[in-house]
Design goal:
With 393 residues, this protein is an alpha+beta fold. It is 33% helix and 23% strand.
Length: 393
């Protein structure tokens, strides 16, 4: 984000796990987890499309074990059930599922496999540029507008799932505009929340439910003016999910990352195994940026990595601390290069990515989450801080 003035407004959005695109991300990542459970080194590129009464899975895979189409359908139905869809026009019980997955191209495989292709080391699964970002705006070192957009929807989802608010349905969106003074967020200028609801729920009732959850997650005194608080601004949101709109994997890449506060290389994450640097290199870029900020070397940090298909080492590593660094950026770049092997294999081994940890990433962001005991969100760990401080001083 290029920003010259220190006083400005900035907006980010989030979508719930019941949004049509997020249904697709969830299914694609659940299929990936299933393949990795059977073969930690499985290759998967699974895309999902949804619309009324229909789900289609497309893409490629390579796995040492045979995975039946029936088991893939069962996983797909379980995802829809867990999200909460049992509605006319889209129900886990009877939605039609079409599977069009095929074996991975041997031309791609030879560039990725160790000992084959032009580079004898394991190469990147595709070319591309990937970004990571961290800043001190929130405890998770994430941009505040996205952080609170996610938190609002997560709070509403938890209430829906618990049965506390049966009038809520799975599809929802949020948008938070924060006011910045001297480069720091100080409060909400406007908040927009659209949440699917049952036929009998009044808009006044839904508005007050949403207000409670917004106030719950925002810091004290941050609530926007009443005239800028928009809840279901069309006046009704009964028809939602795939009945209201089609969905595709990978269409919410800004929601998945930094809410527009940092650049994005363009590649989506969900449904891709960790040999695909679209995903793994974006994760390690976040890991590097977060540890640099946590170590006290910058207030904010952007990392860019670039790769060529079939080539094991990154083509470039770029560190930008937005003029907030306490040491030269060249020193940070050199330290990172020495501490982490940024080849696809090195990233996978450092972050332990060959595990079934991906379905949980499919809603409410891939970043800013707490590391989990089984290795989930390993890229959010701060275990590089001590090494950076020891090397740089």
């Amino acid at each position: 984000m290029l920003q010259n003035s220190k006083d400005y407004l900035f907006t980010s959005e989030s979508v719930s796990e019941g949004h049509p695109d997020k249904i697709c991300d969830r299914i694609s990542d659940a299929i990936l987890d299933n393949f990795i459970t059977h073969d930690p080194y499985a290759r998967v590129g699974c895309e999902t499309a949804v619309t009324t009464d229909f789900i289609c899975l497309l893409g490629e895979f390579r796995c040492k074990e045979s995975i039946s189409n029936e088991s893939i359908k069962d996983i797909t139905r379980q995802c829809v059930k867990d999200i909460g869809y049992d509605q006319k026009g889209f129900s886990w019980k009877d939605v039609n599922i079409d599977i069009r997955l095929h074996e991975q191209s041997v031309d791609i495989a030879q560039g990725v496999d160790s000992g084959t292709g032009l580079d004898i080391e394991e190469g990147a699964g595709d070319q591309g540029i990937m970004f990571g970002y961290a800043c001190k705006e929130t405890p998770s070192l994430m941009p505040a507008p996205l952080y609170y957009s996610h938190a609002i929807l997560k709070s509403l989802s938890d209430a829906r799932r618990s049965g506390a608010i049966p009038e809520l349905e799975p599809d929802a969106k949020s948008q938070v505009t924060l006011q910045y003074k001297d480069g720091k967020p100080v409060g909400a200028q406007s908040i927009v929340v659209s949440t699917q609801h049952t036929e009998d729920a009044t808009q006044d009732y839904i508005r007050e439910i949403v207000r409670t959850h917004v106030q719950k997650v925002l810091p004290d005194g941050w609530m926007c003016p009443e005239d800028n608080f928009y809840v279901n601004p069309t006046g009704r949101f009964v028809i939602g999910g795939p009945v209201g709109d089609a969905g595709l994997t990978g269409r919410k890449i800004i929601v998945d990352t930094y809410g527009g506060a940092a650049p994005h290389g363009g590649g989506a994450f969900s449904g891709k195994d960790p040999t695909k640097v679209d995903r793994s290199a974006a994760y390690v870029a976040r890991y590097i940026a977060k540890n640099i900020v946590a170590a006290g070397y910058a207030e904010k940090c952007t990392i860019q990595l670039s790769y060529a298909i079939g080539v094991s080492k990154p083509i470039s590593l770029y560190v930008n601390t937005h003029r907030t660094a306490t040491v030269p950026e060249s020193i940070l770049s050199e330290a990172v290069s020495k501490l982490i092997d940024l080849s696809p294999r090195g990233i996978r081994e450092h972050l332990k990515l060959n595990r079934p940890i991906y379905a949980r990433t499919s809603a409410y962001g891939h970043f800013g989450r707490d590391p989990e005991a089984d290795g989930g969100f390993s890229w959010e760990k701060l275990d590089l801080v001590a090494s950076l401080q020891q090397m740089i001083g």
